[in-house]
Design a protein that fits this description.
The protein contains no helices and five strands. It is mostly beta strands and 57 residues long. The chain has a single domain, classed as SH3 type barrels (Roll), CATH 2.30.30. Strands 4-3-2-1-5 form a five-stranded antiparallel β-sheet, with no helix packed on it. The protein is globular and about 25 Å long. The mean pLDDT is 86.
């Protein structure tokens, strides 16, 4: 189940990699065009645009 419209690239709960940092985390929220990502099991949270992220499998 998606919390956002189907035309968005990412959803809450998706595992993502921050391209320029080579770190992985989980999307925990979205505010307009920014995705809030939890890194290091919640030890660090920051916001990124979709072009800064890529899905991890």
């Amino acid at each position: 189940m998606s919390f956002f419209d189907n035309d968005n690239e990412f959803n809450v709960g998706d595992k993502v990699r921050i391209k320029y940092r080579s770190q992985e985390g989980y999307i925990i929220d979205r505010n307009s065009s920014l995705y809030m990502v939890s890194i290091n099991e919640g030890g660090y949270v920051d916001s990124y645009t979709a072009d800064q992220l890529e899905k991890c499998w």
